[in-house]
Amino acid sequence: MADPSLDNLQLPQTMVNGQQRSEVSVLDRGLAYGDGLFETMRVVDGRIALLDYHLARLRRGLLALKMDADQTAIISELNALAGQLGDGVLKMTLTRGIGKRGYGIPAQAQPTRICQSFAPTGYPIENARTGIRLFECQTRLAVQPLLAGIKHLNRLEQVLARSEWSDSIHAEGMVRDTLGNVIECTMSNLFMLHGERWVTPDLSGCGVQGVMRDYLIDRLGQAGESVEVRKVDFSTLLESTEVFCCNSLYGVWPVIGLADTSWSIGSRTRQAQRLAEQVIK
User: pTM of the prediction?
Assistant: First the structure.
């Protein structure tokens, strides 16, 4: 039975392999195996924020998955759509393309490029101003160094983690790996002020290496802040004096609570927030 709630669903403007259409083959390996990558990008005044960081992560993903792609065509399509969109969100999905049944990689694979444009995100303004509470997710991220850091299409762990809460109290969920290390949030990365330095979790085993995370590591360092990338246990998070999460769409959200632990919004979190706003507003 069809879902009546989908009757009025508006499809985003979509290009598949440079053509305006919204269908892909049922034999596409992205559908069958999650064999591919994606990037979700903020568009401001017709330009893609942090484009160089997005392209760098895409190249790392292509190398990890042993995929070839026409990067010139990708950049051209993204810039063209961004110019048409003005303000909003672009999502670029790159799959390995059509293949036969089975896991073996086709010898002559032709990647499928899917570019979609969306209206600006509707995240509450209050999240950035007054901070958010984190939900402590029980879903654990599997440790797999071969896929760590890249934005591959296999996101079921994040889907399951995000399904754990439905209230309006929590805006994000904190996720650990199977070893108990703090890794990230369901759609963003974490920074915590531990002692006098910022700490962000090491993502060499699992998790997504967000482009806003990379940008803030660079910019905070240039601003004289010390940023350490290392394994983070749960007690380190609880002992921190300031905490924020970040991604390339909303920038920085101060974190004010997790279960029974509370944090204040400090001046150094506000500094990180201003650095993020420089590229997404």
Answer: 0.92
Residues annotated as catalytic are: 40, 151, 184
Query: Domains in the chain, please, with CATH?
Result: 9-118 (3.30.470.10), 125-280 (3.20.10.10)
pLDDT (tens, 9 = 90+) of the chain, 281 residues, equals: 444 444 444 557 888 998 888 889 999 999 999 999 999 999 999 999 999 999 999 999 999 999 999 889 899 999 999 999 999 999 999 999 999 899 999 888 899 999 999 998 889 999 999 999 999 999 999 999 999 999 999 999 999 999 999 999 999 999 999 999 999 999 999 999 999 999 999 999 999 999 999 999 999 999 999 999 999 999 999 999 999 999 999 999 999 999 999 999 999 999 999 999 999 98
Residues near 246 by beta carbon (within 8 Å), at least 6 away in sequence = 188, 189, 191, 210, 212, 213, 216, 252, 253, 272, 276
